[in-house]
Design brief:
mainly alpha
Length: 105
């Protein structure tokens, strides 16, 4: 498939597709195969997992670093999850307090 078909299939903008292609040195390529699609799909997944472009580049270029990068990102996301849980706990506390005060009236 060519770049136009690739853009349609991935449902991304031309700019986004070109950025992904550049990361894996495919920007000069005219015809793309299933392996190219898999690489782009993997990069899209990494982007969705909040990997920086730099980390995506490392992930794609250095396979021996992949597990380390995934574990680092997992730890980061887990920390963010815990931070969000603390915020939810604060909201729940405020709701509880408001309901308690309302019931005392």
């Amino acid at each position: 498939m060519d770049k136009t078909e690739l853009i349609k299939k991935l449902n991304l903008s031309q700019k986004e597709v070109m950025a992904y292609l550049k990361m894996v040195s495919l920007s000069e390529k005219e015809i793309f195969d299933d392996e190219d699609m898999k690489k782009i799909a993997l990069m899209m997944t990494l982007k969705r997992l909040d990997f920086s472009d730099e980390k995506i580049g490392c992930f794609m270029e250095y396979p021996y670093c992949r597990l380390t990068l995934l574990n680092q990102q997992r730890a980061l996301l887990l920390d963010q999850l815990h931070d969000k849980q603390k915020l939810l706990d604060d909201i729940d506390y405020l709701i509880h307090e408001l309901k308690r005060k309302e019931s005392e009236k």
